[in-house]
Amino acid sequence: MARRKARPATVDDVHRLALAMPHVAVVEGTRGRPVYQVGGRSFVFFRNPRPDAFDPGTGERYDDVIVLWVADLGEKEALVQDPSTPFFTTPHFDGHPSVLVRGSRVGELDHDELAEVVQEAWLARASRTRAARWLAEHGGSASGPATP
User: Fold this and answer.
1) In whole angstroms, what is the distance from residue 48 CA to residue 56 CA?
2) Which residues pair with 42 in a beta bridge?
3) Exposed, middle or buried: residue 85 (CB in 10 Å: 0-12, 13-18, 19+)?
4) Position 41 pLDDT exceeds 80
């Protein structure tokens, strides 16, 4: 039997998946954009248009950039250099353990892929105790069952 492909991810999924993680608080960032935090540490946030993320053809600043933390710079490089993913970075984020994705390109990921990235972002920022507890409850990996 052929395996059914998971549905494409949406920006609403980013919100739902971030909120599904334990101990999450949502704070209002600039221009009212949500910032998802665990223990006072951001793990996903919706970025304001900035001069470093823009359409190369028009020069127009991207208005839909989402920042997601990653475990380390090696993970970041793996994601941004993989041409099969919509992740990117800018010089502003050099040396910062995070990746960027445009909301308009989130659908290039399937729901399960997005869930793993959001869960990994949470794990990168949660306390060791919280992360260990979550991993124990989810079979030791972020790719365990995701809450839609």
Assistant:
1) 18
2) 37
3) middle
4) yes
Interval 99-144: pLDDT, tens: 999 999 999 999 999 999 999 999 999 999 999 999 999 987 665 4
Query: For the domain bounded by 11-128, which CATH number is listed?
Result: 3.90.1150.30
Mean pLDDT of 63-87: 96
Q: In what order do the strands lie in the sheet with 24-28?
A: 24-28, 34-38, 41-46, 65-69, 98-102
How far is residue 129's CA from residue 24's CA, in Å, rounded to a whole number?
Answer: 15
3-state helix, strand, coil in the chain (%, to 5): 40, 20, 40
Q: Report d(CA 134, CA 144) in Å as an integer.
A: 10
